[in-house]
Every structure is written in C-alpha cells, then in structure tokens.
Amino acid sequence: MIEYLVGTIDFIHPEYIVLDVNGVGYQIFCPNPFAFQQTAGDVKVYTYQYVREDALLLYGFPTREEKALFSKLLSVSGIGPKGGLAILATGEPEQVIAAIEREDERFLTKFPGVGKKTARQMILDLKGTLNGLITTETNGDVNSGLPAKGESDALAEAIEALKALGYADKEIKRIVPLLEGESLSADAYVKKALRLLIEQ
Predict the structure, then answer these.
(1) In this structure, is residue 18 part of a structural domain?
(2) Whether residue 82 sits in one domain with residue 69
(3) Which structural domain range is residue 194 located in?
(4) C-alpha to C-alpha distance for 92 and 30, rounded to whole angstroms
(5) Which of 6, 131, 183, 193 has the most C-beta neighbours closer than 10 Å?
(6) Cα torsion through 85, 197, 137, 50, rounded to 10
(7) In a structure prediction context, what are the per-residue pLDDT tens digits for the chain, which is 200 residues long?
C-alpha cells in the first residue's frame, strides 16, 4: 500500500492530477483536483490504492484524515470510489461525520448517488466509528504566528488546507492577520487566502 507520494503537479484534469515523483507520473483521482492548482513546489498527496480485476487506481487527498474517511466510506455497501470522492468533494468532512453521528439522512442524501437506503446504511455502518477521525491540528506555539486550536476552527482548517496545497508556514503567517476577525467558512477562507497569496 502506498501511504503518500511527494512530488510536483505536472497536470490537472477535472477528475485527476498527474503527480511527478522523480520523473514518474502518477495519475491520482481526487475529490477536487483543482485544489492543487495553486500549489508551488513539492506537494504531499495521501493515497488510497484501489485494486479490482480490471483496474489498479490511486485516489489522493490533501490530508491523512480525508483518506481515512474515504476508506471508511468504501466499507459501506452501495458506495464505491466515485461516490466516496463525490461526498468528500461536495461537503466538509466534519459535516459528513456530524451528519452520520446525528443520523441526518436528509443531509446525506444531498450527495450524488446517495439515496435514502445508502444514507441509512452509512449511518448503520459508520455511526460511532468516526470519532477522532478528523482533527484540526495547527502549530499553536506562541511564536508560530498561527492561531491555536479552538481560536477559529474554520480558519484553522483553512490553514491546514493551505499547508496541504504546499504553502510554507512563512507565507501563511504573512496573510493570517488579513483573515482574522472574519466569520467565514473554511472554503471561503481558503479562497480568500489563495487570492491574497497570489496578489502578494
């Protein structure tokens, strides 16, 4: 099993990225390949190797936690790799876990290919098994310049996403003051942060 790959983005397609690792191009299917569009330099992609009779595929994620959630989703009858990617691409992993824990079928059926039966199966199979799967870890050191855990969960998640995209702590610290004090979703923070990083 390949845990992760580190390399540079060679090509981005609506369904996958091609990651160049020491001259070898790996095709990696991702929930949102364009999330890697702004990545400069080396990027770490956590991979899930999917094997079946007629295919050997790699699926990639910016965090180990998203990979773990993808693996859990695949264990549910009725959810294949394409469905798992759709769930991770259209919803925050924390929201998906919260919906499973509170048995919110209505939320889960919003994802492509998830009907009431599959939503119920997700709840039956996964409820109680996802605690601690998604964690928000930031450098909470006094001198880090990054917010400590609990100051702003959405901002902390956005910072982790920026790190996953390959931005250095130094670059992130420079724009954090421009993001603090706003009440945005993690996705909105990421989009604004990327705009700021591009403009600077």
Answers:
(1) yes
(2) yes
(3) 153-199
(4) 15
(5) 193
(6) 20
(7) 789 999 999 998 888 999 999 999 999 999 888 788 776 789 999 999 999 889 899 999 988 889 999 999 999 999 999 889 888 875 578 888 988 999 999 888 888 778 899 999 999 999 988 877 765 443 333 333 444 333 467 788 778 766 655 567 887 888 888 888 778 876 678 778 877 876 65
